[in-house]
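Please fill in the sequence for the structure shown.

STRUCTURE ENCODING:
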């Protein structure tokens, strides 16, 4: 991965200066996510699609519902399809709301790749070319097994986006990996940092024997770090998280967080642009879906991750 990142950064300068052929033909790809503007984790996605566009010599655009409203996202997919791009790259955060617009885009002749949220099965159902992302239940299960090996028997899952099925899969997978019932160990934390912190404090106060905390990304991890610092549990309670970010990397380095699960969002944005561009130019397509994660990040070997956290990692 180190060589790959260094290579794409060096190649981008060449692509920006000398993109030819396809760029002149007006190839355009639109990436649509479910993320609100406030979620900084998606900056890596934006960087990934921008770099891929530069290197492949195609126009790219990132769109999202400012507040994270999925009905708004469905409208954005409809609008993007109506603009006639060569391809759409989209998350599938809630099939009930988003399957219709995605299928309509496919039926209109637009190629689609599902990324980040969704599953290979759902990608096939909506007619997408493929899925690029992390199998969320499997990632949670692997994390649960790791925690079980470390002696963990109970936990708090801080779910900051409970309406998204994949977030619940993370918590359920973790519980199954531990071999325990999920039950009330998953809380609806919301997305307001102050509220997340207060709910974590309240849960741990009411359940002082909790062995571990699991967060689902920077949105819930960052306030949880503050909560543990406030109640004196930072560094004492077992703490694992999905995804990476600046504060998460600091937490891993200091020993407050035992590990982070890296789904490599850079690849989730970068690879679909490369795949679709080559598919449209040369008719070549990978024969299967692409798993971008999970990978466990610990305090060992943090140098490159620290350098690119929040940018390309």
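FILLED IN BY: designer on duty
SEQUENCE:
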């Amino acid at each position: 991965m180190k060589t790959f990142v260094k290579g794409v950064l060096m190649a981008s300068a060449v692509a920006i200066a000398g993109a030819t052929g396809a760029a002149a033909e007006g190839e355009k790809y639109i990436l649509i996510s479910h993320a609100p503007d406030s979620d900084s984790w998606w900056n890596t996605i934006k960087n990934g699609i921008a770099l891929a566009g530069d290197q492949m010599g195609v126009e790219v655009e990132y769109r999202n519902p400012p507040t994270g409203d999925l009905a708004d996202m469905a409208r954005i997919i409809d609008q993007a399809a109506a603009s006639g791009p060569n391809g759409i790259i989209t998350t599938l955060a809630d099939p009930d709301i988003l399957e219709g617009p995605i299928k309509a885009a496919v039926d209109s002749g637009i190629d689609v790749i599902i990324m980040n949220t969704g599953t290979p099965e759902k990608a096939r159902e909506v007619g997408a070319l493929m899925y690029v992302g992390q199998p969320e239940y499997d990632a949670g299960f692997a994390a649960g097994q790791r925690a079980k090996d470390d002696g963990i028997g109970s936990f708090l899952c801080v779910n900051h986006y409970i309406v998204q099925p994949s977030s619940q899969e993370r918590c359920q997978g973790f519980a199954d990996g531990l071999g325990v019932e999920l039950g009330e160990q998953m809380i609806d934390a919301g997305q307001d940092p102050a509220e997340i912190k207060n709910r974590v404090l309240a849960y741990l106060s009411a359940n002082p024997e909790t062995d571990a905390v699991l967060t689902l990304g920077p949105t819930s991890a960052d306030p949880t770090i503050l909560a543990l610092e406030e109640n004196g549990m930072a560094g004492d309670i077992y703490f694992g998280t999905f995804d990476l970010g600046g504060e998460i990397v600091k937490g891993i380095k200091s020993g407050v967080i035992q590990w982070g699960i890296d789904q490599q969002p850079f690849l989730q944005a970068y690879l679909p642009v490369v795949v679709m561009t080559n598919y449209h130019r040369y008719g070549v397509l990978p024969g299967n879906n692409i798993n971008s994660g999970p990978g466990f990040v610990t305090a060992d070997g943090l140098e490159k991750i620290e350098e690119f956290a929040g940018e390309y990692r």
